[in-house]
Specification:
heterotrimer, B: alpha+beta, Rossmann fold, OB fold (Dihydrolipoamide Acetyltransferase, E2P), C: mainly alpha, MetI-like fold, 11 helices, about 75% helix
Chain lengths: ~260, ~425, ~260
């Protein structure tokens, strides 16, 4: 007998209606508006001028490619630096692992701007120059916890008897890792990659502060355009960014929303 | 009253209908002559003891039990009194202020019962309440429930799949299968005189065989004629016969018995020995005896006429409704089957299709249609399977092969075994 | 000894992670205008932070940020609870659709959320200010509340609601007396989460705050940093925020550990 697992509160399912309306107004409609603005020009006529401008404006295309590059590098560095941390933490070799995990999560809860300014302060203090290196450092610094936490979560929840089974069947520690632990941690890795790549592609404040506005990322371009009243163009770039992120999340096909990371 | 049946037979559904959690799509429900069909659960004079207790974790024992009373806005003193009374009944006095998760399974069970009975319902519904407890605890609780029932004098409607429990506890047993009541009666009735092969198989261990009622008080099975006490089945009628293992007598000397067979296995069961005996004609019977025998020994078997229970067969062959496509094709069970040339019936007409149990072939892989094994009845010389086809209709199969419940099977029927008849 | 490398690696990383914050904390105890100059130990900056006066605008900004966060958190908690209960009772297909929609704000990069809401308010002719910021925060926070309540509903013994009905409670009474107590922890953690998200929010606030002079802490810092300096009083503020978050997380951690043992 197949039992419905969800409650039979009956009438209460209508309580989703106010929420559905809310989502419609404050989430769906704004997104549709971006699309509308992207496809119209300043007079309100349908036009592809914004996209033409995007493709032909050398600087914008450069920024686009550059932003993706920076995002990829940041994600890669976070992965290389962060995975070992997640793995070490999941091995429970510290006397109070939960405290250490908390220490890694703590920065996530402190204002991004403050953290970035703290990085600027650090660089000033050490008399290191700001610029591209600082940018990457700042990005990794900001988003590393977002890579560590999902991977740690997945590794932690992995059934330890699976590693024991592998050992029982004759696998040495390295093989256990490559053939069992690593594949099983993939959901966490994809979650982490998404949670780093997406914000990095769309960031602007960090870039501005850490490079004294010398390096412009895609996010900066959007912000500048919106601020200067070029809403249509700004919307168009936003749409491109949305597509980029949509495509990259299709590649990974995970439920990072449910992971949440922060929940 | 106990509702007894295997999982999925609909007993919990029945209980939920009575409690009010499931609205009835047709039919009516009466309690004490008053109709309650349209009344929501919080207004019905019934209370339920849930399978997983469903105690409110944020309330302590007292508040859990008092929950229903507080809703009725009874004065505090009266609530105290009633709660104390039921706690005493379930032997949980002094547990008022304990938190729910500090209680053991058995204790939670009692609180759940107390919470239900304190509201003085007309009917108490119990949904497999003891299934989560271990054996010793279960047996103790069964006795306590019986005591409680005697003291409270209200109707207990108890649902379980454990036939021993049903037989121990009940005044009346209702056996259900696939949403249909198979038999209602006292535990003794249901055990000694099962109405059909399902009940016979479900209650107690038994040997069920295909037989032929030759005439009143004479039945033939396992290639032997037996005197029995049943009449009214007609002459030369196919029937089912039930023999309880404890009713079969074993003789060391084969010639002393009515049947003769070789012992296949002997298992010591504490009180008796459980023997399987294979007769000369290939019938494997389960026998309980107080004596020990050796495996391989040839023995004689006998059974008293009074202990042979004859039941009507629910069906003698498979019967389906179908449509004749043309002279050599008929459609039933959602598939077009090839059949022998049919004469006297027009193409397109609705027909009755018959297939004998033994003519249905079961395959591991794909067949003409697919199905799932739902129920296996051992008939001593064959297995009688109930297979649910993809078309959502049952097909009954006799086979020597051993299948498991839930096996997916392919089904094939040869043309010469399909009988097409006028509706 | 075997784990020495591993431990060193982790500690090193933590050191790098906290170095900038430590610098800010250390230099909050000095008077120098410029970060990096140590002019002797002093708590003047802390005093200045709390005294209002010259830095009235920072104080006002803090108040605004708190107010926005509180209102957004309260509204999100209410809307999210109702939504979670509603979603929990939907049939499978509808539920998945709503959950998908629910997850969009979580998955969206902040700048998209910000720009889209900006365009919304502009199209509707709503002038940007306090209300728009609050509405914007609610819109991206409620999904988190829903996601922190739903698991509690799933974990709950499904018979509890029916048990309440069985004992004579009407559906509303059953919800109030049985369901809400069960999801209360989820509501609380949702509230805290929303409060923090709102308090720390930068991008969305920037796009929906308008030009009337309203500032949240983040936009204030941003404007400040663009001007080239970091208001010195921000150092003690950062240090205090850091300590508060540290203590809060510690408490949450302890509570989580206690309930995990409890459940075993």
């Amino acid at each position: 007998m197949k039992k419905r697992q969800f409650g039979r509160f009956g009438v209460q399912k209508n309580w989703t209606i106010p929420y559905a309306v809310f989502l419609l107004v404050f989430v769906i409609t704004p997104l549709i508006l971006i699309a509308i603005y992207a496809f119209t020009d300043a007079d309100g006529q349908f036009s592809l001028a914004n996209f033409q401008k995007f493709i032909h404006h050398g600087e914008t295309v450069n920024t686009f490619v550059y932003s993706i590059g920076i995002a990829l590098i940041t994600t890669l560095v976070c992965l290389i630096v962060g995975y070992p941390v997640a793995w070490i933490l999941s091995q429970n070799i510290f006397s109070s692992t939960s405290v250490i995990v908390m220490l890694f999560i703590l920065p996530m809860w402190i204002n991004t701007l403050i953290r970035t300014l703290a990085t600027v302060a650090l660089f000033d203090f050490l008399q290191l120059p700001l610029g591209e290196g600082a940018l990457i450092f700042g990005l990794v610094y900001n988003f590393l916890p977002f890579m560590i936490y999902p991977i740690y979560n997945v590794l932690n929840k992995t059934d330890h008897s699976l590693t024991e089974a592998a050992q029982d069947l004759g696998a040495c520690p390295l093989k256990v890792f490559t053939r069992v632990t690593l594949p099983l941690s993939m959901p966490g890795v994809t979650s982490g990659i998404l949670m780093v790549f997406m914000p990095t592609v769309s960031t602007f404040a960090i870039a501005e502060l850490l490079t004294l506005n010398n390096i412009k990322l895609l996010g900066t371009t959007v912000q500048e355009n919106i601020n200067n009243g070029m809403w249509n163009y700004g919307a168009a770039i936003s749409l491109v960014m949305l597509l980029l992120i949509g495509v990259s999340s299709l590649f990974t096909d995970d439920k990072s929303g449910e992971e949440g990371g922060l929940l | 009253m106990t509702i007894l049946g295997p999982s999925g037979c609909g007993k919990t559904t029945l209980l939920r209908l009575i409690a009010g959690f499931l609205p009835a799509t047709s039919g009516q429900i009466f309690i004490g002559g008053k109709e309650i069909t349209g009344i929501p659960p919080y207004k019905r004079p019934v209370n339920t003891v849930f399978q997983k207790y469903a105690l409110f974790p944020h309330l302590n024992v007292y508040d859990n039990i008092a929950f229903g009373l507080k809703l009725k806005k009874l004065p505090r003193k009266e609530i105290d009194r009633k709660v104390a009374r039921v706690l005493k009944m379930v032997s949980m006095t002094d547990y008022e202020y304990r938190s729910v998760d500090s209680l053991s399974g058995g204790q939670q069970q009692r609180v759940a019962i107390a919470r239900a009975i304190v509201n003085e319902p007309e009917v108490l519904l119990l949904d497999e309440p003891l299934s989560a407890l271990d054996l010793k605890m279960r047996q103790d609780m069964q006795m306590e429930l019986k005591e409680l029932h005697k003291n409270l004098k209200i109707t207990f409607l108890y649902v379980t799949h454990d036939q021993e429990e049903a037989l121990t506890l009940s005044d009346t047993v209702v056996v259900m299968s696939e949403g249909v009541i198979q038999q209602t009666g006292t535990p003794m009735d249901v055990y000694n005189e099962p109405a059909n092969s399902f009940v016979a198989d479900f209650i107690g261990a038994s040997n069920i065989l295909n037989a032929e009622m030759i005439e009143d008080e004479l039945v033939r099975f396992a290639n032997h004629d037996f005197k029995c006490v049943d009449k009214g089945f007609g002459e030369h009628t196919p029937v089912d016969v039930v023999l309880r293992p404890e009713d079969i007598v074993v003789f060391e000397n084969p010639s002393n018995g009515m049947l003769c067979g070789k012992i296949q296995s002997v298992v010591f069961k504490g009180v008796h020995y459980e023997l399987t005996v294979l007769t000369e004609d290939g019938y494997e019977l389960l026998v309980h005896d107080y004596n020990c025998f050796n495996v391989g020994a040839t023995v004689g078997l006998a059974v008293k006429p009074f202990d042979i229970h004859v039941m009507k067969k629910e069906r003698v062959c498979n019967t389906f409704e179908g449509k004749l496509i043309d002279a050599s094709h008929v459609e039933f069970l959602g598939h077009e089957f090839e059949c022998k040339e049919v004469e006297g019936i027009e193409a397109g007409e609705r027909v009755k299709v018959e297939v004998d149990f033994g003519d249905v072939e079961l395959l591991d892989n794909e067949g003409m249609i697919e199905g799932e094994v739902k129920y296996i009845l051992y008939k001593c010389d064959r297995y009688h399977l109930t297979v649910l086809t993809d078309w959502d209709e049952n097909i009954y199969v006799d086979t020597q092969d051993v299948w498991d419940d839930g096996d997916k099977v392919g089904i094939s029927i040869m043309p010469e075994h399909i009988r097409v008849i006028h509706l | 000894m075997k784990h020495l490398f591993a431990k060193l690696y982790v500690w090193l990383l933590l050191a790098i992670l906290y170095a900038p914050i430590l610098i800010i904390i250390i230099f909050s105890f000095t008077e120098a205008r410029v970060l990096g100059n140590w002019t002797g130990f002093s708590t003047k900056l802390y005093q200045s932070l709390f005294s209002g006066g010259v830095n009235n605008s920072l104080f006002v900004t803090l108040l605004n940020t708190f107010a926005i966060a509180f209102i957004a958190a309260s509204a999100s908690a209410v809307l999210g609870s109702l939504a979670a209960i509603g979603i929990f009772n939907l049939r499978h297909k509808t539920r998945n659709t709503v959950l998908f929609l629910n997850n969009i704000p979580i998955l969206n990069p902040e700048i998209i959320t910000g720009v889209s809401l900006f365009l919304l308010f502009v199209s509707l002719g709503i002038s940007q200010g306090f209300m728009t910021v609050v509405l914007a925060h609610i819109s991206f926070c409620v999904p988190y509340v829903v996601l922190s309540i739903l698991p509690r509903l799933k974990q709950m013994n499904p018979s509890l609601y029916e048990a309440a009905l069985d004992l004579g409670a009407t559906p509303m009474q059953a919800l109030r007396k049985v369901i809400f107590p069960e999801i209360k922890p989820g509501i609380i953690s949702g509230f805290i989460l929303t409060f923090t998200l709102s308090f720390d929010d930068f991008v969305v606030s920037l796009f929906t705050i308008g030009n009337e002079g309203l500032q949240t802490l983040s936009t204030y810092i941003y404007a400040d940093a663009r001007k080239g300096g970091l208001t010195p009083e921000l150092r003690p503020l950062t240090s205090l925020i850091f300590i508060v978050v540290l203590v809060l997380l510690f408490i949450v951690n302890q509570r989580a550990k206690k309930s995990a043992v409890h459940e075993k």
